[in-house]
């Protein structure tokens, strides 16, 4: 009998938990033996490197490759991102130089990226980590959730500990799911959800590093989290000139036919950066199906209309437009 996806996911989650427990036991045993050796005067160079597969069940470890030159954002959004980078890079000067230590509750630098999917929130988080020379630990609430009461809160503590040990930038995607407004306790579920938010608040205050939240539902944020955010940055949908820059930036290094008109594409399709990326991938698939040596305008139009068609389907809207070349 074929197992359902839900059952397979439960088995994978359970297996990850068992592997994490085993790794923790090995590390505890190693530390114990190391202490014993030190007590009898043995000086050694042994070290047990932290295997980042340990954290893969809770976080995605990203080695940042994108830099500021890869960002294409509206100028006001980009200026806020640059301001945030300067704030992070000069945090000691900001605190001591202006005498802010007395009124600061913690050393955490928390940013909140707000915007629709595909507007560059995750990419910007990667750019921040790259700028600081750190790894990015990306967290999704669905990976933290456990069936047993109290386990989700423990996972939150683990995530912060992992980031603390690796000096990584912590990135909570779809953060509204974990930082939403606390509720009046009516049942065990409400109590558990409030506990999760309280644990997150505590860890946030005690974390000496950078935490980035990303959401497209900022209105759901608990006010307690809102007060602890240093900067809220709104990622807007790009206008036509920004879309043209996105097309050109994302197509950098690709084999492009001379008939491609990025200005026309940016005018015709009101896409986010994520949708433009998908349109380019679709265009490449179209070109491949015809064994073309380069990507033509027709390929980009077909690729774009496939994205447009998919978006309309997902929104429950019918789509009758024929795929055609725009000259």
List keywords for this structure.
single chain; 327 residues; alpha/beta; Rossmann fold; Helicase, Ruva Protein, domain 3; 3 domains; 6-stranded mixed beta sheet; 12 helices; 6 strands; globular
Give the spatial strand order of the biggest sheet: 1-3-4-5-2-6
**Approximate strand percentage:** 5-15%
- Gyration radius, to the nearest Å? 24 Å
Strand/helix succession: HEHHEHEHHEHEHEHHHH
CATH homologous superfamily title of the largest domain: P-loop containing nucleotide triphosphate hydrolases
* Main CATH class of the largest domain: Alpha Beta
Counting helices, strands and paired strands, the structural category is: alpha/beta
Give a description of the structure.
The chain is α/β, with parallel strands linked by helices and 327 residues long. The protein has twelve helices and six strands. The protein has a six-stranded mixed β-sheet with strand order 1-3-4-5-2-6, sandwiched between helices. The N and C termini lie far apart (53 Å). The C terminus is likely disordered.
């Amino acid at each position: 009998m074929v197992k359902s996806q839900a059952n397979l996911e439960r088995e994978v989650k359970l297996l990850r938990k068992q592997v994490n427990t085993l790794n923790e036991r090995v590390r505890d045993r190693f530390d114990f033996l190391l202490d014993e050796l030190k007590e009898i005067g043995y000086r050694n160079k042994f070290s047990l490197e932290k295997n980042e597969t340990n954290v893969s069940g809770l976080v995605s470890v990203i080695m940042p490759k994108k830099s500021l030159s890869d960002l294409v954002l509206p100028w006001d959004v980009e200026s806020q991102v640059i301001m945030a980078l300067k704030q992070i890079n000069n945090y000691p000067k900001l605190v001591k130089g202006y005498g802010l230590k007395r009124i600061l509750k913690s050393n955490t630098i928390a940013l909140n990226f707000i915007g629709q999917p595909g507007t560059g929130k995750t990419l910007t988080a990667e750019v921040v980590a790259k700028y600081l020379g750190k790894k990015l630990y990306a967290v999704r609430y669905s990976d933290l959730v456990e069936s047993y009461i109290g386990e989700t809160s423990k996972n939150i503590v683990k995530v912060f500990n992992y980031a603390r040990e690796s000096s990584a930038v912590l990135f909570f995607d779809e953060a509204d799911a974990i930082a939403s407004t606390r509720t009046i306790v009516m049942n065990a579920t409400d109590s558990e959800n409030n506990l999760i938010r309280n644990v997150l608040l505590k860890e946030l205050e005690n974390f000496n590093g950078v935490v980035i939240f990303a959401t497209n539902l900022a209105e759901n944020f608990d006010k307690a989290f809102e007060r602890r955010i240093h900067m809220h940055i709104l990622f807007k949908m790009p206008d036509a000139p920004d879309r043209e820059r996105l097309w050109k930036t994302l197509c950098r290094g690709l084999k492009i036919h001379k008939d491609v008109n990025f200005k026309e594409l940016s005018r015709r399709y009101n896409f986010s950066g994520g949708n433009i990326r998908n349109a380019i991938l679709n265009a490449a698939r179209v070109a491949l199906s015809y064994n073309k040596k380069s990507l033509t305008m027709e390929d980009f139009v077909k690729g774009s209309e496939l994205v447009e068609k998919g978006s309309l389907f997902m929104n429950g809207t019918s789509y009758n437009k024929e795929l055609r070349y725009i000259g």
